């Protein structure tokens, strides 16, 4: 298993993440609807909005997972935030970076992963919108376009969260 590298701008990335004031908050319908749509559209058992802090990937919204987080060092998301666009793993069991990952060898038995990095206006990737399957698969150009559009919608939603919270606290 290959642990994802830490971004060069990790301190700034984490500051941007914490400024959202979203970590460990209750589920919200607006985010739940996005992952429900993604799971349905891509016909996958798991869809997540993940936020990556220094120790874990935390799930702001989820379909098909019972855990609220997993360790950062086994996350696929850690790899995805290092990419400029959607990170796709067609078959994790045959990919040397992930073949012996406990999320592949055990529950939830990830075989396919596609994670669109949530790059904020600051330029920091804070997490992903991802779709996951228990069988290998691929995405075509249309699929990638749809996932990117959902990601863009989510980034706009997230971009307003920190600003609104800050105004409420200081104004």
Model description:
The protein has 171 residues and is an alpha+beta fold. The radius of gyration is 15 Å and the shape is globular. The protein has helices spanning 10-19, 29-42, 77-80, 102-105, 141-170, and strands spanning 46-52, 56-63, 69-71, 87-89, 112-119, 125-133. The longest helix has 30 residues, at 141-170. The chain has a single domain (10-170), classed as Beta-Lactamase, CATH 3.30.450.40.
How does the overall form come out from the CA principal axes? globular
C-alpha Rg, in Å? 15 Å
Q: Residue share in helices?
A: 25-40%
Q: How far apart are the termini?
A: 48 Å
Number of strands: 6
Widest sheet, order of strands: 3-2-1-6-5-4
Unreliable spans are 162-171
Number of helices: 5
The total number of structural domains is: 1
- Shape-level CATH architecture: 2-Layer Sandwich
Order of helices and strands: HHEEEHEHEEH
Structural class: alpha+beta
Which percent band covers the strand fraction?
Answer: 15-25%
Supply the CATH class: Alpha Beta
Q: What is the arithmetic mean of pLDDT? A: 92
The major sheet is characterized as: 6 strands, antiparallel
Entry keywords:
171 residues, alpha+beta, Beta-Lactamase, 6-stranded antiparallel sheet, 6 strands, globular
Structure summary:
The chain has 171 residues and is of the alpha+beta class. The protein has helices spanning 10-19, 29-42, 77-80, 102-105, 141-170, and strands spanning 46-52, 56-63, 69-71, 87-89, 112-119, 125-133.
Secondary-structure blueprint:
Elements: H1 10-19, H2 29-42, E1 46-52, E2 56-63, E3 69-71, H3 77-80, E4 87-89, H4 102-105, E5 112-119, E6 125-133, H5 141-170
Antiparallel strand pairs: 1-2, 1-6, 2-3, 4-5, 5-6
Helix pairs in contact: 2-5
